[in-house]
Amino acid sequence: MTPGKIVIRGPNWVGDAVLSIPAMKAVRERFPVAEITLLVRPWVAGLFRSAPFVDSVWTRPKPGVTAWIETAREMRRRGFDLALLLPNSFESAWTAFAGGVPARVGYATDTRRWLLRPPVPLPEGRPHQADYYLHLVEEAFGEARRPDIRIEASPDEVAAARRLLSTHRVDADRGLLVLSPGAAFGSAKRWFGDRFAEVADRLAEERNLHVVIVGSAPERALAESIQAALAGPATILCGETDLETLLGVLSLASLVVTNDSGPMHVAAALGVPTVAVFGPTDADVTGPVGPRTRVVRRHVACSPCLLRECPIDHRCMDRVGVDAVVRAARQLAAPPAGGDA
User: Fold this and answer.
1) Are the C-beta atoms of residues 140 and 147 closer than 8 Å to each other?
2) What pLDDT sits at residue 340?
3) What average pLDDT does range 242-268 have in this prediction?
4) Same fold for the domain at 5-141 and the one at 155-332?
5) What gap in Å lies between CA 249 and CA 212, rounded to an integer?
6) pLDDT over 70 (residue 335)
7) Average pLDDT over residues 132-153
8) Strand partners, 297
9) Nearest to 4 by CA among 54, 79, 58
10) What DSSP assignment string belongs to 195-263?
């Protein structure tokens, strides 16, 4: 059967959603005339509003049982032929089953094997998350050309970013060094603010870039501490960008320096030079994907621990020095006018 209407249940978090893009593109290439609906949480939807590989974006809030039932009823009303379930949750499989979707493709995990048609065995080893999602598509529909992860900010997203920057009297065409010093997972993933500041001062001066700090509203205090430590000026946008505007801001950047975070993956997928500091998480599994990325990390015996808070001395991050991050950035950035890097 060639499905006419496909629903893709997308990942719940921005970074995972970015890493699922090659899998979504592969579905579009496999079924070029199908109507593809992407079902995601509201805080992820902005990533895909202008994506050419899906036809529509459907959002549902984080569910309880009542929301599960409502989602299943809506699936049945929409009459999907195929559901591709990228999360491993029981909920995603149950709603497709109860929603009457005849083909329900997902990994056989979380006690949900009986809900899937077909259940796909987990891949061996610990593949990168982007390969993990793509493997599911290939196992279900056959191997195909492996799509890239690249996305582009829409003209509306870029325009919104320019308007926001202009309210802060920032010329977006001057060149931006964007810092993303936060990390939603926990403090263990955060490199030190004073080191972000030192990196920014060195790179902004030699590249003639304006420093912009992005993040959520709760990360504003962190951004202000970095701003205070900087020798030069910086603009804080924490809490001022929805995901679409963040896409626009990152697309205008000349360089992004970041922790392991959602903005890291967005910047990498946009093709922006991106330097990412890793400590407790595993860059081999969740590192940024793209030719213009560099990961800076120091191997210690306890990393990757995947803990939210470091129970000892944060050695995996403490051993990442400013010079290493600056060196990685210089490898990515274009030479400054009139000289070499």
Assistant:
1) no
2) 38
3) 97
4) yes
5) 9
6) no
7) 92
8) none
9) 79
10) HHHHHHHHHHHHHT-EEEE---GGGHHHHHHHHHH-SS-EEE-TTS--HHHHHHHHHTEEEEEEESSHH
Return all residues near 270 (Cβ < 8 A) that are at least 6 apart.
150, 151, 152, 153, 247, 250, 251
| CATH-assigned architecture of domain 5-141 | 3-Layer(aba) Sandwich (3.40)
How remote is the C-alpha of 47 from its chain's centroid? Answer: 9
Count the helix, strand and coil residues of the chain and give each as a percent rounded to the nearest 5: 40, 15, 45
Q: Please list, in sequence order, all residues whose beta carbon lies within 8 angstroms of the beta carbon of residue 214, skipping any fewer than 6 positions away.
A: 178, 179, 180, 237, 238, 241, 246, 249, 250, 263
Query: 329: helix, coil or strand?
Result: helix
Statement: 155-332 belongs to CATH 3.40.50.1970: no
**Angle 29-31-33 from CA coordinates, rounded to 5°:** 105
Q: Provide the residue ranges of all domains of the chain, joining segments of one domain with +.
A: 5-141, 155-332
DSSP string, 97-141: HHTT-SEEEEES-TT-GGG-BSEEPPPSS---HHHHHHHHHHHHH
What residues pair up with 258 in beta bridges, in sequence order?
Answer: 180, 276
Residue type, 171: D
Q: How far apart are CA 115 and CA 75, in angstroms?
A: 15
Residue range 171-188: mean pLDDT, rounded: 90
